[in-house]
């Protein structure tokens, strides 16, 4: 039924204005202080505070490119690596996009026998939220990752951040005792073969170390693995990959297609990321 995914996670959510619990009445969600939020007809809920920003959210075109690229399966090894290390049944993904990684985690939890695993997909883009809401195990929320998260204290067994922003204090607040944060960061070799031809930014070394430093006193690193794979990407794969990411904010689709046309029909590209696990308590 409409909003089934949202109903399953509503007990985890909090009002972005006053942090009070939320309840649903028909097509509206509200708190005891009287703040009200309408549920979109596509099933997602916008929980934006007074200082929330959405200008960093993906456009409809970026979300379509993300659906196309992730649907090709090239980043499935990343999704599998994340699912390998998540054991909790209540999962929040920050910067969830279309919910691709969150969905893979919920699939794995169900396969392990976890009863009724559920997830919250949080993203600044309403276009991404529409896509994530299609998974009825997921409550899809439009929110700003740099503001107070509309999630109750200690509500989540696991938090995911895959190439996404992270506010250490807020993540520590919403994680339950013994909960885990899984962060995926790119290695310098990631997509190296197409960075110059497509005008992509380089990746600095030392990201895992800086990640650990940013959570010092809040979470403790407990695991880290480097995932290294070779991909064979068509020109259309490359176009979708570039247009789903931050480069799409300063390159037009025509520029990306023109650059991709100079590549071979199949281009060998390196997937190189670090999967970092940090834990509370």
Description:
With 281 residues, the chain is of the alpha/beta class. The protein has one domain: Rossmann fold (3-Layer(aba) Sandwich), CATH 3.40.50. The chain has 10 helices and 11 strands. The protein has helices at residues 4-9, 60-71, 76-85, 100-111, 126-132, 168-174, 192-198, 207-214, 235-243, 253-260, and strands at 23-25, 28-30, 36-38, 45-46, 90-94, 118-123, 138-142, 156-162, 175-186, 220-234, 266-279. Helix 3 (76-85) packs across helix 4 (100-111). The longest helix has 12 residues, at 60-71. The N and C termini lie far apart (38 Å). The relative contact order is 0.16. The mean pLDDT is 94.
Individual helix count: 10
Give the second-level CATH assignment, the architecture: 3-Layer(aba) Sandwich
Remind me, CATH topology?
Answer: Rossmann fold
Q: pLDDT average, as an integer?
A: 94
Dominant shape: globular
* Rounded radius of gyration (Å): 19 Å
Overall structural domain count: 1
DSSP strand content: 25-35%
Question: Roughly how much helix do the residues carry, as a percent range?
Answer: 25-40%
CATH superfamily: Vaccinia Virus protein VP39
Low-pLDDT segments, ≥5 res: none
Strand adjacency order, main sheet: 4-7-6-5-8-9-11-10
Largest sheet: 8 strands, mixed
Structural class: alpha/beta
Tally of extended strands?
11
- Alpha-carbon distance between the termini? 38 Å
């Amino acid at each position: 039924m409409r909003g089934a995914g949202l109903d399953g996670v509503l007990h985890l959510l909090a009002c972005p204005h006053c942090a009070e619990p939320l309840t649903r009445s028909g097509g509206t969600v509200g708190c005891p202080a009287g703040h009200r939020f309408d549920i979109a007809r596509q099933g997602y809920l916008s929980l934006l505070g007074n200082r929330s920003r959405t200008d960093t959210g993906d456009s409809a075109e970026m979300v379509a490119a993300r659906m196309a690229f992730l649907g090709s399966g090239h980043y499935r090894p990343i999704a599998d690596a994340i699912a390998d290390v998540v054991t909790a049944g209540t999962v929040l993904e920050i910067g969830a996009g279309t919910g691709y990684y969150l969905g893979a985690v919920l699939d794995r939890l169900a396969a392990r026998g976890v009863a009724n695993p559920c997830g919250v997909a949080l993203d600044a883009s309403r276009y991404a939220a529409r896509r994530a809401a299609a998974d009825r195990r997921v409550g899809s929320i439009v929110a700003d990752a740099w503001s107070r998260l509309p999630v109750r204290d200690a509500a989540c067994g696991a938090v995911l951040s895959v190439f996404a922003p992270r506010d250490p204090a807020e993540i520590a607040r919403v994680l339950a005792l013994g909960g885990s944060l899984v962060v995926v960061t790119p290695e310098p070799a990631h997509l190296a073969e197409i960075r110059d031809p497509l005008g992509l930014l380089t990746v600095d070394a030392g990201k895992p170390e800086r990640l650990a430093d940013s959570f010092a006193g809040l979470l403790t690193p407990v695991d880290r693995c480097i995932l290294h794979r070779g991909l064979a990407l068509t020109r259309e794969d490359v176009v979708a990959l570039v247009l789903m990411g931050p480069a799409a904010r300063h390159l037009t689709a025509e520029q990306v297609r023109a650059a991709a046309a100079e590549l071979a029909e199949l281009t060998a590209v390196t997937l190189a990321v670090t999967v970092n696990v940090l834990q509370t308590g």
